[in-house]
Every structure is written in C-alpha cells, then in structure tokens.
Design a protein that fits this description.
single chain, 132 residues, alpha+beta, 2 domains
Length: 132
C-alpha cells in the first residue's frame, strides 16, 4: 500500500524524478473522472499524452476514448442518414468502456432498427406475392 506522503499530483513536475514516488491523477471517463495511481514510468507516459494513456487504460483506441468521453458513454448508431452522414442517435443508454467498444458505430438506433424491420416485412410480402 502506498503511503500518503509518496502520493503527488502528476501536474507537480518537479516531483516526477523522486525515487519511489507514486503519482495520483484523474483521467476523464464517460461518467466524470477516474483516479489512477501511477508509477514513475507510468507518470512519464501519461504526461506525454494523457488521452492516449487513458484510452489504453480503458481498453479503447484514442478515437473510441474521445467518442466515449464526449458522448458521455452513449454508443451511436452505425447507419447512414439520407444525407449521407453517420446517424448520431443513441443505440442505448450510457455504458462502460467495454460495452461501448462493442456497440459504438456497430449497432442501430431505434429508428434504423424499425426501417430494417419495415424493409424485411416488405420483402417478405413481395416474395409471398411472387411465389403465389
């Protein structure tokens, strides 16, 4: 267990070279912040690129991490709108990083699920009509 006297905020750069130091930092997450205790080496990696460090910590790519944080953990639809842009509707409510990785831009929102169901119904009706 780390004693409180060895804990230093990562922003205190003059402390980074002290032997045996442990650093406390708070990385952004979809639900606010997440405290991490870092070794000296981890502190240097974090300091070089905080978002990349946090992304790796949560098991996400940098782009996924930024989407997860900025979208407050809500995975977005993978469908394309009539205008040719990605749909920004939610697939579900806010989720943790692992579930976000599984669903973001891979699932469909309610409206696009309904569109697919409607098309499938029409195709089924057309097939039955043609085979009659």
């Amino acid at each position: 267990m780390t004693s409180k006297s060895n804990i230093v905020r990562i922003e205190d750069h003059k402390q980074i070279n002290e032997p045996g130091g442990t650093f406390l930092t708070n990385v952004r997450s979809a639900t606010g912040g997440h405290d991490l205790f870092l070794s000296m080496d981890e502190g240097r990696v974090y300091d070089a690129n905080p978002d990349a460090f946090a992304a790796a910590h949560f098991g996400l790519t940098l782009e996924q991490y930024r989407d997860w944080v900025h979208g407050e953990g809500v995975p977005k639809c993978s469908a394309t709108t009539k205008r040719g842009t990605l749909c920004n509707a939610a697939v579900c409510q806010s989720v943790d990083a692992d579930k976000f990785k599984q669903l973001h831009r891979k699932g469909l929102c309610h409206a696009h699920r309904e569109d697919i169901a409607l098309v499938a119904t029409r195709i089924g009706s057309a097939d039955r009509t043609m085979n009659a």
